[in-house]
């Protein structure tokens, strides 16, 4: 690992010039930056803006669901022909649902989450000057931004944004005549998605190569914090699954624009038979979900990594079962590639496959359960500091449990027959990957804000933000389970056409107002976030008394991260409240020779010389190594 | 704090101005634009009223926040070194969340839980329901226990300077237990699910043939249903024939197949109780989903590919009305796969009746191949004979 400086040209640059001023212009510093911290901030702020937009879209369609018979003149002013007479057009409703899902899944929880924290933390926590390829990193952001702009631009075209649901199943998405949302809006959606995947791949390749090649001295894989493990496995998952989506998207573009028949066959629309023959709509579903299911783990694994770190720091305890946490992440990564068929139990796929996918799907619940129990054990007998980041981490665990348990229902093919495409599914994934991942992201923002902006966010606004959002999320999603169990399908524009749905109208009103409460609560976050960038309390170097390397960098955030030599790592990241040590944390940069009073036999990994030295020291100091007494 | 609110207000105002100018650009005539403005007169007032209300709420929260921080500071000045104990407060809030949350779950289960689907009206549905019960009980136990642990740890172990956390990095025995126990429980669930699944979809050949054959064609945004008639075989159809025979052939029936002639067109699905029925599903345009929640039946209708669902209804509509105590109860068929603008409105009536009523109903149904269609077909065949143009039947 001593070859880092040679591997990294920018490192040499820094060693040459020390930490003197760079000749940076506004453009190179803030816009076309190649510094991983600035790129992380670019991803974060773009992600927050996209998240706010997607949230506002959801409020719009929630209003439609709560008040299907009311007219809101404001909507007509804002949306024009998409809301004639102040009521959402049914096709535009589907576009809103589609774009809400697309933005949230891809642009906020994939790019906004991985893009921000992988970029920020990989070099900082591993002891690298920057990412392996800073230029590619910059390109990754810019492709992402172009994709964001493209997807939003579809609100300004005649036929409106894509409307076939975020899974864009053909033939609906392939035939412009099937719905307005399958016209130009869908073309742009597909192009945006290709750019997005290119961005993700560039990011992912960068993350993997940085993690594998550029760790500082002493940072072997088993000393990496769980955040880094999570980012590594997320990136691997993305690299292996995203190209399959591109393949699927390219074939869909061919079907739409060049008359091929990959997904289309035997179709009559508007009284006219189409020329397509021999394709299968099921093929798209296989290709889409081959990405789509790993995608939900791409979304949740970084959140898992973040909250593992935040919970250890704020419980002042080592993460329980570090090795089990890593192995369960690896298991999730591997299994995530062989479960995609559980999205297709009732799509006409051969029922035999349904049985197979049910088995693999329920197996993946085991590593998830292990992670949950380990988080609970981490909290047990801790000394918990409720920073906003810690609150969001606990909230994340709660959502992950509530949402994960319903996964056991949906993964069961027989139960899925009646739950498929109902509100039960909506409730399930909004809790387990929506709310849980966004809470992981928020935990990360509150926790590493000092590393991004040199200031801390206001904790009291953070508490307010957490409690309102936490309650609102449960109010919104918990009742949806019961709607699903009553057989109410998702993506319904109104509940007015079926008598049995009428009893859910009052629930819809409640859910909508809870969603509005949740949206309003984000004002507390936005004020806190953007206000603290400029006016927040100045941070110290290690405000949370954490062990990891990023807290050894100066508050000023240099390009190149450390002013002098990169620190060496001697121990794992989780020596919190170690018996025998005067403070309740020992940073990774502290050698065992300086902590003779707290060293434990397993700290030496079987190094006999070190063990002997420790034994001699113990004898000399007559100190018992019984942790109970030390405490 | 305050000038940030002002910023927010400016932003909102700016946004509204942009939105307004956008609509005006879209309006093609100036007169129309004026009309638009007139139509939305007073809207500005309403909107600014709500914006003001929101701002007031924000300012109120801001003031409360300031008061709290002033209180906090004075406490610190007065020698109460630690100020407000936020860790303690948050811990207590988690304790309250646990109790209120558990009650909330109980309330949801009893009140909203009583509004969910009634017991299944089909043979396989009963199996699904029993598995539903087992899964519900297991997951609820885990939900409650893990949340008790999560929130009570948060309640009991909030930060104290006097205490040091317990250094407890791992315990292999414990970890083995909580890997193996979930694995065993899940294996049981998998096996139950697997065998139920196979019993639903692996139907023996003779049972398939003996079932009542119903053919369903979905299209935007309706269902076409036909019964197989006396021979219990639905005749062939071909999408290229849709609209042929002068537009009479809306399903694309292939009239050279004699099995078509006794097929029946129906306006509602009527099924005899305790008789197996086999649905053959297809779509003319996009994917739809054939969803009858009361029978626990769902299968997608895919263009270019037939899909099947076979099941046995076990309760007549009358019996369901008695069981659910709802005189207006009806079985429904709805679409569960997003299929376009009127996806939410693809209702089709379903009734389950006694065998005798079913036979009577069946007698009243008209053949799907009408006399007009037969005439058109004859004509087309004759033309084809004279002009020997093989394409006519298809293109017509």
What is the H level of CATH, i.e. the homologous superfamily of the largest domain in chain A?
Answer: Cytochrome c oxidase-like, subunit I domain
Work out the radius of gyration of chain A.
26 Å
Sheet of most strands of chain B:
6 strands, mixed
**Which series of helices and strands of chain A comes N to C?**
HHHHHHHHHEEHHHHHHHEHHEHH
What is the architecture of the largest domain in chain A at the second tier of CATH? Up-down Bundle
Q: What structural category arises from helix and sheet content of chain A?
A: mainly alpha
The tally of structural domains of chain A comes to: 2
CATH topology name of the largest domain in chain B: Immunoglobulin-like
Strand proportion of chain A: under 5%
End-to-end Cα distance of chain A: 37 Å
Structural class of chain B: alpha+beta
Question: What is the helix fraction of residues of chain B, given as a range?
Answer: 40-55%
Largest interface, with counts of residues having CB < 8 Å to the other chain, equals: A-B, 130 and 125 residues
CATH homology group of the largest domain in chain B:
Cupredoxins -  blue copper proteins
Provide the CATH top-level class of the largest domain in chain A.
Mainly Alpha
| Helix content bin of chain A | 55-70%
* Uncertain regions spanning at least 5 consecutive residues of chain B: 1-6
**Tally of individual helices of chain A:** 20
Cα-atom radius of gyration of chain B: 33 Å
Shape of chain B: elongated
State the CATH topology of the largest domain in chain A: Cytochrome C Oxidase, Chain A
